[in-house]
Design goal:
single chain; mainly alpha; 3 helices; elongated
């Protein structure tokens, strides 16, 4: 600001009234600008608040999903441990052979489907 803007105008003169009027108008313009900035900041803070609430709900849902998965995994692990502890050797051998056979069958089926998919001459 200039020195002139810092001086208080003399109330009795017309120059002083003009200067006071100009200062008042300048204050009003700056106040309007400040009001617009405060309004914009308010809307940004509301948007941030809404986004935080959405993210918190998403995290809560993810946490619940992982908790359910963890409980299911623990039950499966306990059942497998119990099965291995009580099962006889012959049963475990048959179970292992069935699992290996199933994985091999799935591998060859998948390999055949993929080779037909990528080697076909027909355009999609």
């Amino acid at each position: 600001m200039s020195r002139r803007a810092n001086r208080t105008p003399v109330e009795g003169t017309s120059a002083g009234r003009n200067e006071a009027f100009e200062l008042e108008e300048q204050n009003d313009r700056q106040l309007e600008g400040l009001s617009a900035k405060v309004s914009a900041l308010h809307s940004v803070s509301i948007n941030i608040h809404d986004e935080v609430n959405v993210q918190n709900r998403l995290l809560d849902n993810s946490s619940q999903t992982f908790d359910r998965f963890g409980n299911l995994f623990d039950r499966t692990r306990h059942q497998l441990t119990h099965t291995l502890a009580t099962a006889n050797k012959r049963f475990l051998c048959y179970l292992t052979l069935a699992l290996v056979f199933g994985v091999c069958v799935l591998y060859y089926i998948g390999k055949g489907l993929l080779s037909r998919l990528f080697n076909s001459d027909d355009p999609l």
